[in-house]
Amino acid sequence: MEKPWKFFLAMFICIMSSRCKSVDATDALFPGQTLSGNRSLLSKNGAFQLDLNCPSPPCSQYTPLGIRYVKSSTCKPLEVWQYGSSSSDLWSSFFNRTYDNDDSLHMTSVFYAVILDNGNLVVRDQANSSLLLWQSFDNLGDTLLPGGWLGLDGPQMFSTKSNGSCVDNSYLVRNTDQPKGFTIFRNPDCFTDPQFHYSGTFPSWMDFLEDGDSLFLSNNSDLYVQLDSEGTLTAGKLGACGTLLWSTRDSWKENSDSMKERPHFKTKILVLTAVIGVLILLMLTGLVFLWIRRKRMERPLNRNSTLVVFSEGHIKKATKSFSEKLGEGGFGCVFKGALPGFPLVAVKKLKGIAQGEKQFRAEVQTVGVIQHVNLVRLIGFCVQGRTRLLVYEYMENGSLNSHLFSESSARLTWDLRYRIALGIARGLAYLHEECKDCIIHCDMKPDNVLLDAEFCPKIADFGMAKLLGRDFSRALTAMRGTIGYLAPEWISGLPITRKADVYSYGMMLLEIISGQRNATNHVEGKYTYFPIFAAIKVNEGDTMCLLDPTLEGQAGIEQLNRACRIACWCIQDAEDHRPMMGQVVRMLEGVMEVETPPIPRSFQNYVRMADFSYSANADPSL
After folding, report:
1. The pTM is what?
2. How many domains does the chain have?
3. Within this chain, do residues 38 and 82 fall inside the same structural domain, yes or no?
4. pLDDT (tens digit, 9 = 90+) per residue, 273-318?
């Protein structure tokens, strides 16, 4: 059993120590709790204590609130921070002070305060404890603790002393002219304006870290730095009863002459204000320059590319806020526009694009290098946020669809139709066989063939499968429900190859020849799906009945037979039976013979059995 004198000695030390001031000391003060003369906050490591310096309540309304270093039981507590030593308007919004029976401090209803192990008093939001609203390290008094910092614009060390009707004070600011540099200012003898007092550097052995304009006293340091109202800066060791390790007083005399020659504080403020003003002016000038540059952004994507990158605002202005709509498809709407330095343009506003900016730029660059007389030229693009815009050359005569199936279709003579069919074939052959990487169009139809001022055909929307990625399948969903121009492999879910474009071209060639849509029924004794009727007639050698009636028979019979046979070869069920587009070009040019094609068997699956019939002389294999 321990001796009684040891127990009483421990009790005596506890009573004499400020650490035993309150039996219910914790590190946090929550709403509804009170900090008063008999209650304090103590950091978890027992090093720092926040309390009212009132040993025996009731306390006065002038009782100071402060933070003290109390870890050493053999030394007098070291005061390291006191409310009022550094003004803070935020303080009154977090705490309420009452003086009914004794001086007490209460938290407001939505915040709580915590004294940390490094002596930093912080205020946090109860709903979000990670939100730091206020801290004593940002409102320094006369002491800098390990983990604290000095900044060019704050925080600053500050010390004050009442001198009758006047108040003498001094403060220390960060000086970035020298490593670990600082400057001290004073207003002695009640001078209105602070005066330069001392400039120097912290010793190299002191564990200070520099980060830009801030100077940090390392958390691992056991030192503290204090500034008194006379402008003297000292450094001591925590827990060593105030043992002095360094002081500016030692070097004051040898530096006093040079210090008198330093500029006045007000001059420094004026210089600093001027510098800040110049920086703000430069920043505003830079922002205006960037805005102008963005509005006039017309630059190549890179040295090897002719594509131009446009800003969204520039294209909005060029298209009059997308007011003149040229058309709409599965990938988006097309608008007419006029850009300075360019002829008229067509702007395609893509919709539902989830592709990232970097990937989209890369794919646009790939498509942009593809140049051919029968392909619509991509001039540039815009990618901002979720906006994706493609800028193409403008085609004066619109789409082939608008001429083929309208009252103005008579303008398309047979010779012109044949040249258009040949031009489309050359464009597809280039995409399939001459590009570095084979490009499958996947959406060949008259809507995607545009005609320039000379009625030269140009294929549009090539490369969309690369640009849209997974969204391309979504854009074609509506097409898959119709017979249209889709090859059988689209419907059966087989892999898509360039022969799918060949099939679509064959269907489109039948429309160029006949002037009627493939999806409509054709009256020939009974209702018949036109491609079936065309395949039967080609097999029978009767092609003149397939010619657009508006041409009134004005067509070369040899070219007509050739075009009809090519169309029926292109729409064969099996991919291997369809020609390559390069072969199609040679057949249309007349340098390659075209045999009579068989009738595709699968046509029977596209229409009801009651809707078609054919001559008894047709191929019995059907």
Report:
1. 0.51
2. 4
3. yes
4. 888 988 998 888 888 876 665 555 445 444 455 788 888 888 998 8
